[in-house]
Amino acid sequence: MKILDYVEKFGDYSFDALPFNLIDSAIFSYLSYCNFHKVVDKNKITIEEAGKKHQTRMKKRLEKEVIAVREASNLLYHIMNKNRYKNCNLMRYVYQADDNIQFCAISIEFMKNNVYVSFEGTDECFSGWIENFNLSYSFPTVSHMHAIDYLNHNYSFKNVKLYIGGHSKGGNLAQVAGAYSNFLVRSKIKNIYSFDGPGLLDRQYKSSKWKRTINKYIHVLPNSSIVGILLNNDNDFVVKSTARSPYSHSILTWEITEQGEFEKTKLNEYSKEVKKNIMKWLKKYSKEERKDFVDNLDKVLEKSGVKTIVDLKENYKNVLKVLKETKDITNDNKKRILDLLSVFVNAFQEVTINKIKTSIKKIKKEEK
Questions:
Q1: pTM of the shown model
Q2: How far is CA 317 from the centre of its chain?
Q3: In the chain, which residues fall in CATH 3.40.50?
Q4: Rounded-to-integer distance, Cα 25 and Cα 30, Å
Q5: Separation of alpha carbons 46 and 298, rounded Å
């Protein structure tokens, strides 16, 4: 059973009959991917009403959206007529996107004075992955500041119980916003959820601000995660996914028991290996070197036509060719990019790894 099956099986239970749980949190974390422009604003609107308006508005546009938006919209349409969800109120929708930031948040009142704040994450586009890589050298990011301000502005003086969550980068935003919001907000936070979200840099991970929040935090990730294993995290809850990386990043692939709980398991050996190699890579380079790497990686991927992480499987030869021919990237930065790409290409078990490693070694040799 997966999340859509859970909605069908338990969708008629109220939150009084079946208390809010980890799967409900995962569902709410995904709703922030929906394009609620001209559907939800600062005022309350039920999920049922919002779903109908969203269906009408997005009918012809949805197939052109990225996977995360399509999946979230499909999830919205499944829950909008279910007794458990249809009368939940959506409100305080905020969306901002430009060349420097992608930030979105929405509040969901699922019971009186019980509010879930959902922060949008990244999708399969590499632009989103670039944002994840930014976390390896930058704190706080612009998105972090927006997330903290969202909580402080909206909930400092509201008499509510707060639940905060997000998927992918959204989980990291929830993690940071929960720890760095003001005292009034923090006193209302019951739980903080990150669904396969990256963690914290060493300094923030060891800080007193994080330590005072850690007991409210839960990090849910699939057994073949390549996102949630980035940086430092705590309180891991590993769930079984029916998909391999990077497809297991989608919560719709996560398995649920017949009793309505995520099926708990352990990280597989592949995910452990990726985590070990990425942590080695992070320790190998300074923050300044990581920043240069991210800027140059963005440039190389754009030139080689790689727009999604899935494209990497088909276009890795072109990426290596573009990297070799790009004159305005230093040999040191080329080496950093090759080092990290050699980690990520292993995410695609269908690709012949030895063939990729041979190509990488050849380019490294030519660059000497």
A1: 0.86
A2: 28
A3: 3-268
A4: 9
A5: 40
